[in-house]
From TrEMBL:
Keywords: Carbohydrate metabolism, Cellulose degradation, Glycosidase, Hydrolase, Polysaccharide degradation, Signal. Its EC number is 3.2.1.4. The keyword Signal applies. It comes from Raoultella terrigena (Klebsiella terrigena). It catalyses: Endohydrolysis of (1->4)-beta-D-glucosidic linkages in cellulose, lichenin and cereal beta-D-glucans. Belongs to the glycosyl hydrolase 8 (cellulase D) family. This is cellulase.
Length: 232
């Protein structure tokens, strides 16, 4: 994100933990929503001439809406994310990370590669929204998104084990510095383990209603992962 949006995001992250009360208004969220979130639920980076939206920005918006107990904003942010970054279905596709103005008459996906940090935030926000607001459809979408993260963004790296890559399109030769430490936190591992179907022994969803065991499920969770080779 560019400086303007990043400043607002940083401020909200600092204040979020202390101001989650459902009974109180959250002025910082109100200001963020007013300055950066469109009526349709798109988090806009005004510092870029293309008026870009990133999956990272959407993930922050979803988290802040959840912390503010703003169900309406959460729903709009999720709907926009799903329709425009995931071709209408977050259960079936990882969101592309960059959307914006391509020409005077065209607004579209500018880069369809995914970003694992935002994907994890979106999945977590969905799981928590479903739990707190008693909306099982959010939980199911969050679990499906985690399954896709594990399948497309997690790799078994020799010498390191299962690692979350920056995105689904990444170098097959892993080198030092190519991984994102933030995505390997114990908290993400706990979430993946807790939501994996049937615990650690089961893997990916074949369809919305059917699960199948896979012989090479990741040792990290029951979700299946792919292998890459290590390089210099």
């Amino acid at each position: 994100m560019m400086n303007a949006l990043r400043t607002g995001v940083t401020l909200l992250l600092v204040l979020a933990a202390a101001q989650v009360s459902a009974a109180c208004r959250w002025p910082a969220w109100d200001q963020f929503r007013k300055e950066y979130v469109s009526a349709e639920g798109r988090v806009v980076d005004p510092s870029d001439p293309r008026k870009i939206t990133t999956s990272e920005g959407q993930s922050y918006g979803l988290f802040f809406a959840l912390a503010a107990n703003d169900r309406d904003a959460f729903g709009k942010l999720l709907q926009w994310t799903q329709n425009n970054l995931a071709e209408g279905d977050l259960r079936a596709r990882l969101p592309g990370w960059l959307w914006g103005k391509k020409s005077d008459s065209e607004w579209t996906m500018l880069d369809s590669n995914s970003a694992s940090d935002s994907d994890l935030w979106i999945a977590w926000s969905l799981l928590e929204a479903g739990r707190l607001w008693q909306m099982p459809q959010y939980v199911e979408t969050g679990k499906a998104l985690l399954s896709r993260i594990a399948q497309e963004e997690v790799a078994d790296v020799p010498g390191l084990g299962p690692m979350v890559l920056p995105g689904k399109v990444a170098l097959l030769t892993i080198r030092a510095g190519a991984l994102t430490p933030a995505t390997s936190r114990r908290s993400w591992r706990t979430i993946l383990s807790a939501t994996a179907p049937r615990g650690r022994s089961c893997a990916m969803a074949i369809s919305a209603c059917c699960w199948r065991r896979r012989p090479r499920a990741s040792p990290l969770t029951g979700y299946a992962t792919r292998k890459v080779r290590a390089g210099s």
